């Protein structure tokens, strides 16, 4: 059948479809970080994006400043009221911190799940097609950022580092639909702490879902949800949000808490990448393997 | 010198898309509406008609590749879709009259097609979790409106400019 195979367009189409499937398969497989050619292109594009986003960010900041000015007075009133409470709270915190340090000194625990280092970064781009809930920041491996680190804003946790280049990194937000996107969380109730997993995002309510809460535990609405630090990747005590509703799960065996994220997941400008200093399970396993090898 | 102006403008539009994306989503008529800028595609479409199809294919391929790598992380989608849609556009325009309004409408239809294919793909790999009617109300209508605004403002100036550019290049 010579005419069929002589059709140049058909061959181009077939070859490109094969190439397409291969490339998609390559980029969708599970992997720790992107390969170096991808990092290279990403860094070059990111360099330009960095320059392009600076004036845009400046204009945006200017507009926000003007908007802030309009409600300065009422804000000032409430802030003054809060300030008096703050002094009291501060003395209490200092007292408790000192107390905690002393007690830790006595029993000789040095490591703390709460310890972390912070890298400040600026958001330079958001995925324009807005299917993947990802943002791109202007810090990368040279600034010490690694995959799976937690990312938060001043008001709360927003996601984790998905992949890193030398000078840019991609952040996957908590709202992304990724079955691997799970955060071990802790709900602070009055009597005791309740553990659960942040799994999934309800797009209609625009709220996170904390699953796998034991059915006999009582969870109050309005309680705070923080990271538990038990997953081995994120530090403890990062604020995730506030419980708005508690419901039975689809099988009636555990409960689901709907959690309103503490930080907006849309309007992001400055973020902090959190590096946990306490060793996690993977590092401990690595160490023991090294020892065995020796 | 004029050889570089087209790629430079392309790069500028490429970066501006992600800046425009920060306005989205907006709350309008009681629902969340996503505005997806497809300015780069419209720009490449205008190149294919008023400048040179060959340049448009190269632009579609290169910018699609950059788009995939930098934004979505899934290589191949836009790299393949941009040239394919340009090919479809040129095939259709052989049959119908080439007027700017017709071309604008064709661009809008092709963007709807592009959005639909990307939606189907994301549904397949599990990134998108919305049903078709939500996709229509939350994304498609607002996106088409947003991009027609771009066409309304810039299609005619770009057309005149590209035709001039082509003439100067032919004279050289």
TrEMBL record, chain A:
What superkingdom does the record give?
A: Bacteria
Instruction: Give residue ranges for domain Rod shape-determining protein MreC beta-barrel core.
Output: 123-275
Q: Per the UniProt entry, what are the Gene Ontology biological process annotations, in alphabetical order?
A: regulation of cell shape
Q: Where is the signal peptide?
A: none
What keyword terms does UniProt attach to this protein?
Cell shape, Coiled coil
Q: InterPro entries per the record? A: Cell/Rod_1, Cell/Rod_MreC_2, MreC, MreC_beta-barrel_core
Keyword Chloroplast listed? The answer is no
Q: Which family does it belong to?
A: Belongs to the MreC family.
Cited function: Involved in formation and maintenance of cell shape.
Name the chain's protein: Cell shape-determining protein MreC
Organism of origin: Jeotgalibacillus proteolyticus
Taxonomic path? Bacteria, Bacillati, Bacillota, Bacilli, Bacillales
TrEMBL record, chain B:
User: Where is it located?
Assistant: Cell membrane
Protein name (database record): Rod shape-determining protein MreD
Spell out the family assignment given in the record's similarity comment: Belongs to the MreD family.
- What's the name of its gene? mreD
Cite the entry's keywords alphabetically. Answer: Cell membrane, Cell shape, Membrane, Transmembrane, Transmembrane helix
Q: How does it sit in the membrane?
A: Multi-pass membrane protein
> Transmembrane ranges?
6-23, 35-51, 57-88, 100-119, 139-158
Q: Single GO cellular component annotation?
A: plasma membrane
A Pfam match is: MreD
An example GO BP is: regulation of cell shape
């Amino acid at each position: 059948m010579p005419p069929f195979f002589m059709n140049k367009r058909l061959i181009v189409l077939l070859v490109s479809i094969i190439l397409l499937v291969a490339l998609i398969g390559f980029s969708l497989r599970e992997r720790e970080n992107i390969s170096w050619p991808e990092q290279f292109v990403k860094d070059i594009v990111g360099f330009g994006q960095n320059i392009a986003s600076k004036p845009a960010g400046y204009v945006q900041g200017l507009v926000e400043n003007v908007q802030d000015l309009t409600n300065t007075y009422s804000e000032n009133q409430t802030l003054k009221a809060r300030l008096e409470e703050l002094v009291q709270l501060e003395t209490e915190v200092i007292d408790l911190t000192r107390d905690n340090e002393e007690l830790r000194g006595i029993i000789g625990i040095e490591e703390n799940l709460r310890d972390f280092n912070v890298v400040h970064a600026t958001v330079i781009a958001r995925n324009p097609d807005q299917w993947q809930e990802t943002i791109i920041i202007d810090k990368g491996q040279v600034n010490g950022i690694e995959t799976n680190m937690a990312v938060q804003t001043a008001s709360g946790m927003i996601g984790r580092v998905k992949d890193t280049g030398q000078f840019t990194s991609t952040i996957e937000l908590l709202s992304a639909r990724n079955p691997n996107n799970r955060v071990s969380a802790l709900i602070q109730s009055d009597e005791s702490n309740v553990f659960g997993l942040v799994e999934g995002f309800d797009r209609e309510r625009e709220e996170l879902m904390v699953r796998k809460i034991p059915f006999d535990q009582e969870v109050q609405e309005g309680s705070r949800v923080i990271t538990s630090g038990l997953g081995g990747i994120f530090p403890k005590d990062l604020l995730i949000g506030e419980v708005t509703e508690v419901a039975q799960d689809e099988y009636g065996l555990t409960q689901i808490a709907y959690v309103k994220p503490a930080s907006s997941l849309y309007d992001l400008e400055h973020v902090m990448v959190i590096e946990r200093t306490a060793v996690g399970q993977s590092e401990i396993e690595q160490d023991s393997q090294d020892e065995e090898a020796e | 010198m004029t050889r570089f102006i087209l790629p430079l403008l392309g790069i500028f539009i490429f970066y501006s898309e992600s800046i425009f994306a920060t306005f989205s989503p907006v709350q309008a008529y009681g629902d969340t509406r996503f505005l997806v800028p497809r300015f780069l595609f419209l720009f490449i479409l205008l190149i294919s008609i008023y400048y040179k199809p060959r340049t448009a294919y190269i632009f579609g391929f290169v910018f699609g590749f950059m788009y995939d790598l930098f934004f979505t992380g899934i290589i191949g989608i836009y790299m393949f879709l941009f040239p394919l849609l340009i090919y479809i556009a040129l095939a259709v325009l052989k049959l119908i009259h080439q007027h700017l309004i017709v071309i604008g409408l064709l661009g809008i239809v092709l963007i709807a097609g592009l959005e639909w294919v990307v939606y189907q793909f994301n549904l397949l790999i599990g990134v998108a979790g919305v049903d078709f009617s939500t996709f229509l109300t939350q994304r498609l209508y607002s996106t088409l409106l947003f991009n027609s605004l771009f066409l309304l403002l810039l299609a005619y100036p770009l057309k005149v400019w590209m035709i001039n550019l082509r003439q100067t290049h032919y004279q050289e």
